[in-house]
């Protein structure tokens, strides 16, 4: 009897393919040498950039990495603890995504994901040190607003599972790590339109400030109804505030909305998601956002009843303005011809993600102003800045308007 032993090569590496052992040991030796030169084998925050360079990670991983181990009474990193942390991490995290998650969770192997609050130190470091945000240093009251905006934008784009937890797999599929790397190469923060643009933050925050009349950082249904000159239908606003696309402000709270004197209230973070979804309905998260809102019974399908429910209010609004309207049956035929659902008579999320005309579909049912724009626009006309997303185009236009308004106010 013959036994054949086959050495199977391993092809699946959930935390990245392990580098050669010599690479890890070389880094460890270099780190030991750096700590040897520091008083008490400790590294202060001011000197920590040297450690970051030895670890060969992007510059703006700096503060999360600094906070990874318990600091000494002097507020410095203990060399022995850091070396232990680094060896532990590199023993099973072998690519940038898995290492970033491990660092952001402070080495908690029971938590292989990133929470929103984990980003606070990283983004505050960007505020404090990026040359493109030098003007913001004196305006400390805007720091937390900027930080929360960037975090909301990161989760809107990266957290495709809507869990409020960014996994390693989601991180790998996103461009977030590339954008964080770009921060140390690009001095103009507004050129980094993904997540960090100050101009984008300014547009979002000004839009929220206009609606938040009592400036408590929450808005209610009446406030949101004023957005874009009452463009959204009341039925859609009710759905947004129903909790289908909003998050609980407190863990363990079964009611996803804070209650105010006029009913439920929306947080600033939820408004960031709303505005991103409203101004770029072709984005995958936006398609899911509005589908959740229109799927009133939550069965995963937009029935003809649900479409009629939303279109009915659109019809009434157009009639009150003296605008000729299509009967629902004719509108439905147009929409189904456009979407071409796989199953006749019902529209699924997959149908809408496959269709290139999804923004027109959504605006037809709940955004009167944009519906009228679609009706008047030449579908074959070339759009300005065609390489930009709808969101980037909107943010650029709104920023110019806001700056022009401020200039006029100053002169006045």
From TrEMBL:
Question: Mind listing the GO molecular function terms for this protein?
Answer: calcium ion binding; protein phosphatase regulator activity
- Tell me the CDD domains matching this sequence: PPP2R3A_B-like
Q: Which domain of life is it from?
A: Eukaryota
Does the record's keyword annotation contain Calcium?
A: yes
InterPro entries for this protein: EF-hand-dom_pair (IPR011992), EF-hand_13 (IPR041534), EF_Hand_1_Ca_BS (IPR018247), EF_hand_dom (IPR002048), P2R3A_B_D_EF-hand (IPR048855)
Could you tell me the keywords of this UniProt record? Calcium, Metal-binding
Q: Which Pfam families match?
A: EF-hand_13, EF-hand_7, P2R3B_EF-hand
EF-hand domain ranges (all copies): 282-317
Q: Matching Gene3D superfamilies, A to Z? A: 1.10.238.220, 1.10.238.230, EF-hand (1.10.238.10)
- GO terms for cellular component: protein phosphatase type 2A complex
Q: Which PANTHER family match?
A: MIP22305P (PTHR14095:SF0), PHOSPHATASE 2A REGULATORY SUBUNIT-RELATED (PTHR14095)
Q: What is this protein called?
A: EF-hand domain-containing protein
Give the originating organism. Anopheles maculatus
The root-end lineage is: Eukaryota, Metazoa, Ecdysozoa, Arthropoda, Hexapoda
